[in-house]
Specification:
The protein has 13 helices and 13 strands. The chain is α/β, with parallel strands linked by helices and about 375 residues long. Helix 5 (about 80-95) packs parallel to helix 6 (about 110-115) and helix 11 packs parallel to helix 13 (about 350-365). InterPro entries: Aminotransferase_I/II_large, PyrdxlP-dep_Trfase, PyrdxlP-dep_Trfase_major, PyrdxlP-dep_Trfase_small.
Length: about 375
């Protein structure tokens, strides 16, 4: 059985065909000249393009590990984007007959893979009235002896909600009771609007597996650079699976990633994210205010996206396609998360670009009579 990855298919078909792409949940990228100095660029241009280390350059492994308290390079595996990290994790852990509990709404790669690999999927729903958090008692009611994996996204895609340390402790306690793994997708960690970095799940649970990468809070999806962080025994198993997928990540991308993951550079990149998003959340809220009583909105705590409910009598995919074809603006319909009646806007672009795109959305709203 194959499950189409609806959101990625939608974006892949149209994101490069519109004038204003507001479907991206990351930050606007920098250039190589922005990231590397003249000496580093000269070195980059003279690099031999070989295979490199299949588990990842040791320097990069060390820099990534430093971002996670108590971890070392043996706890890290470098992948081609966090999408490969998610794939390897699902392939390694999930067997036919397993149960997977998935936070919803969420990035829908893992539940699709779980179904393809023969697992049954249960959903723990984030609730708008709880600030897009879930109820721990409800999660406990879903757990059984067949539960292999609990999959979360923290900070959340698409809501931007952030789990507290206390919530992560409670989650770890429940997973430990049922001997389940926790997958924590943390690609938006580092883009917090208040500048306070989200706790990593790896700090709270011995069977946590973190996936992350440079596409979202680090703003550089074109590098296709991701990683897994877990107990050393888990990493060894995941690495053996990677031999069957991509073998290794690009040595060129890893060279740039080494610079990006140096503590001082990492902090500068994340400070830029905080500044951009703080400005753009205010811009987005001001735009919503021009459409009174039409939207519900809980502002994100992190991440380059805004998830809004709407009170228009139109299906979310139909509305997104109308905006695409008539206004040349792309947004993500709530249908992609199994939540019609909602829309995801990317807010990580330059402010003038975002403002123009939102004005075109306003025209689309007017065109359907609201």
């Amino acid at each position: 059985m194959f499950i189409e990855f609806e959101m990625e298919r939608f974006q892949s078909l149209y994101e490069n065909e519109v004038d204003y792409n507001l479907s991206d949940s990351g930050l606007h990228p920098l250039t190589i000249k922005d990231l590397l100095n003249e000496e580093e660029i000269n070195h980059f241009l003279n690099m031999e393009i070989g295979y490199g280390y299949t588990q990842g350059d040791p320097v990069l492994l060390n820099h990534v590990a430093q971002w996670y308290p108590g971890q070392c390079e043996n706890n890290v595996l470098i992948t081609n984007g966090s999408a490969e990290a998610n794939f390897i994790l699902a392939w390694s852990l999930i067997q036919p007959g397993d149960e997977v509990i998935m936070m919803l709404p969420n990035y829908m790669q893992v539940p699709g893979l779980a179904k393809i690999f023969g697992a049954s999927v249960k959903y723990i729903h984030l609730k708008e009235e709880l600030g897009w958090h879930f109820d721990m008692d409800e999660l406990q009611s879903l757990l059984t002896n067949k539960t292999k994996l609990i999959s979360i996204c923290n900070p959340s895609n698409p809501t931007g909600a952030v789990m507290s340390a206390e919530e992560l402790k409670q989650l770890a306690a429940l997973a430990r009771e049922y001997d389940a793994y926790i997958h924590s997708d943390e690609v938006y960690r580092g883009s917090e609007l208040n500048g306070n970095e989200t706790y990593s799940c790896i700090e709270f649970y011995e069977k946590a597996i973190v996936t992350c990468g440079l596409s979202k809070s680090f703003a550089h999806p074109g590098l296709r650079m991701g990683w897994l962080v877990a107990d050393e025994s888990i990493i060894k198993d995941l690495w053996s699976r990677k031999d069957y997928s991509s073998i290794c990540a690009s040595v060129l991308s890893q060279y740039i990633a080494i610079k990006m993951m140096q503590p001082n550079t990492r902090k500068k990149i994340h400070a830029r994210a905080t500044s951009m998003l703080s400005t753009n959340v205010e811009l987005f809220q001001n735009w919503l205010n021009t459409h009174p009583d039409l939207f519900s909105f809980v502002p994100p705590k992190a991440g380059g996206m805004a998830f809004v409910g709407y009170k228009m009598d139109i299906n979310s995919t139909k509305f997104a396609n109308l905006l695409r074809t008539e206004q040349s603006v792309l947004i993500v319909p709530g249908d992609c998360y199994g939540m019609d009646g909602y829309l995801r806007f990317g807010i990580g672009s330059p402010s003038d670009y975002l403002s123009t795109g939102l004005n075109l959305v306003s025209q689309g709203i007017k065109n359907i009579g609201y």
